Amino acid sequence: MRSPVRQLIFGLLWLAQPTLAQPTLTQPTLTQPTLAQSALAETTPPAAPLAPFELQFDVARNGKVQGEASVHLRQNPDQSWEFETFSRGTRGAAAFIGVKIRETSVFRWQQSTPQTLRYAYSQKVGFSSRARSFQVDPEQHWIRGRDADGPFELRDTVAVVDRHLLTLAIASDLQAGKSEFRYQVANKHSISEYRYEVTGKESILLGGQPLETVRVERIRSNPGRVTTVWIAPARGYLPVRTLQVEPDGETIEMTLR
Predict the structure, then answer these.
(1) pTM value?
(2) Tens of pLDDT along 45-98?
(3) What residues form DSSP beta bridges with 89?
């Protein structure tokens, strides 16, 4: 069984995931495009499936809030996108030893799927820290990175996402009408397939109000750990709640404020 501090660190790492704000849509006025507008349309990338956002979550261990996570999604000037999660312990032992975790993904939208270009992770606990990062070249099909064991390189890779981007990918695909999801995920020194599926609809309480959600669970080859995400279509496919249950019964839950 993990210690309480290690369990919270684990939860902050795996459950510091995003929420997705839905853009406001207005009915356009149709006019005949000019030559300049036509030329611009040929060079302008298609609209992203998800809008920028900045939101906050509470992170609880066994039903008690012990941390918080701040997440944002923004577009960069070069048309790439940045998704970042900053998590920290705010109560109990996690606050005392100063648990802080930051994950940053720079990616591009390939149709409706995020495709990682760069990823960085850093963790600080007390006086110790660790970090890892990697860079992806989608055209040359390689990944190069560095972690505590030194530099590493993967060749002949397919288009990948890092695990930090998984919730974005699921929300985008769910919005497109899919009910089963498969992703090639770049992990430490390897690429693994992650699978998820819709397991039903459920009304949950958020801020004391009922909210209709779609429940999505990860499909694992080995039983034990259970990961569930509740996504709200009425809120722009927000992942409003995430729950991870360990084989020993420990729970880590993340809820939108």
Answers:
(1) 0.79
(2) 567 888 898 889 999 999 999 999 999 999 999 999 999 999 999 998 889 889
(3) 67
What residue type is 65 in one-letter code? V
Tokens (6 digits) for 217? 């669970």
Q: Would you say how long the chain is, in residues?
A: 257
Q: Which residues pair with 221 in a beta bridge?
A: none
Beta bridge partner(s), residue 56 = 70
Q: Per DSSP, what are the bridge partners of residue 210?
A: 205
**Residue 5, helix vs strand vs coil:** helix
Distance CA 202, CA 199 (A): 10
**Residue type (1 letter), 245:** V
Look at residues 111, 83, 100, 87 and name the one whose alpha carbon lies nearest to residue 19: 83
> Left (φ > 0), alpha (ψ -120 to 50) or beta: where does 237 sit?
left
Select from 45, 51, 123 the least CA-distant residue to 79: 45
Query: The dihedral of CA 163, 166, 168, 169: what is its sign?
Result: positive
Q: For residue 91, what is the DSSP state?
A: S
Distance, CA of 68 to CA of 86 (rounded, Å): 8
> What is d(CA 216, CA 197) in angstroms, rounded to the nearest whole number?
6
Q: How many CB atoms lie within 10 A of CB 118?
A: 16
Asked if 64 and 4 count as a contact pair (C-beta separation under 8 A), the reply is no
| Chain centre distance of CA 159 | 17
Site of tokens 């397919």: 158
Residues 6 or more apart whose Cβ sits within 8 Å of residue 239: 17, 18, 19, 20, 167, 170, 171, 229, 230, 231, 256
The DSSP element (H or E) to which 3 belongs, if any, is none
